[in-house]
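Summary for the funding panel

The consortium committed to producing paired sequence-structure records for every protein in the target list. Below we show the first two records in order, beginning with the earlier of the two.
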Amino acid sequence: MAQEKTARRRLLVVDDETEVVDVLREHFEETYDVDTAPDGKRALKLIRTRRPDVILLDIHMPGLNGIEVLKHIQTVDPKPVVIVVTASEDTDVAAQAMSQGAFSYVPKPFDFQYLDHLVAVALG
């Protein structure tokens, strides 16, 4: 009997820092289909067209910041799980992200083992 190929889950990395995007893409691309966006506006377009399962979202970006993107995600497609990834140590930012529907909050620099765990939990 032939095995059915299961569809890979889709991850969207949103960050204006190219180095961060590259590191996260390289880390996750063996396990997930990874799309990237350099800003909030492009992220919202990709959410509509690519339908990610999990979004790794930076807070501090030019144009639409992560909190504004979180608010828009609810109207575009409320299904993706959002994990906020940011260099900010401001706990108010984390609380605000969580109140806007973020699943969790991960500070930079990343603990990749923790980030892997969070993504796995987010995907159920």
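The next record, for a separate protein in the list, is shown here:
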Amino acid sequence: MSDPVLLASPSRETIAGANVTRYMHWLARARGVEFSDYEALRRWSIDELDAFWASLVEYFDVDLGPTPGPELADRSMPGARWFPDALTSYPEHVFRAADENAVAIRHVSEVRVSLGEWTWMQLRAQTAQIAAGLRALGVVPGDRVCAYMPNIPETVAAFLACSSMGAIWSSAAPEFGARSVIDRFDQVRPKVLLVVDGYRYGGRDFDRSDVVAQLSEEVSGVSRVVRFGYLDGTGWEDGFLGPADSELSFEHVPFDHPLWVLYSSGTTGLPKPIVHGHGGILLEQLKHHHLHVDAQAGDRIFWFTTTGWMMWNFLLGILLTDASIVLFDGNPGYPSLDRLWNLADEAGVTTFGTSAAFIASCMKADTRPGLGRDLSRLRAVGSTGSPLSPEGFQWVYDELGSSTWLFSTSGGTDVCTPFVAGVPTLPV
């Protein structure tokens, strides 16, 4: 194996302004714990589990209720128990410090071809109306709500509405066939199905009415199917949304109360349901998105994903930071591989999340991201899905410049986070 090649090193300004640097300074002041470098911090986070996670609760001002209990009450594996008496709410932390006039979501799709924006005020209002609609359908804490919907703002609002009530979310992308969706949703027995009329991919419309009819018949436990008109532009079906002045409230649930159910790929038997809790995902995403993605005020973070991949859930966690998110629904290679780079220009993306396969495709097609576009705001590229080749690393720097921060991410549905992540203060 050849020696690694140094492609980029962070500037002093970058290191000084990184969230992880601020956290290390805070640890020194507030906890009297000092580290000489990032590796020392990483080692401490492993050796002193209780102290590390307790520090994140304090640093991010996480509300776990008046008596959360010990950080790690039971170290058994499997079966470890964290903060056994805590009560919390993931979506409450999403909304708690938001500037209602700031943009929370930028979005575009093959159906909605013009770049749109949702402010925090709009996101909160839609979330409250959906929550009111779900309550009217009898949804209570612990019920499952499953969505067969695309990567659009209304789906984000539906998730936040569901979780605000203590109900449990699960989603599948509309390009999934009926059997794939039934194999997933039938195992969790949802009370309500949120479904789309169809979607557009590669310039073609795909009607999903037959699939939806099959889901409504074969998924166990469903008492109500709610339609969202995406292709026809009608939106939520008449009578579903609550009043425009609906108030958004938050059910405080135990630390390990299920937040969402994700699924393994199903390569061996049925897809395996994997449950993640409010508290665990909340702390993990606060930690990862601040310290490893380095999401900060003014950042606009994009990651290509669908609602059937854990990277969608990963991207939603950016809303726990001061950054905003950018959504895309459609074929990333239509009409050409320039499509997502055009979006990066149009939406002012600062972190461009993609796959190693997409980068390899751009290399093969001789795509030139910086040619004829303003990518001056783009400071970071994230790659996941498979290992990025050395040639892929070099291509990013050749095309986007030496000041780019390229980081690889490797994790999985099991944890809904990376095992391997970026560190903004280290060289590439």
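Regarding this second record: The longest strand covers residues 103-109. The mean pLDDT is 97.
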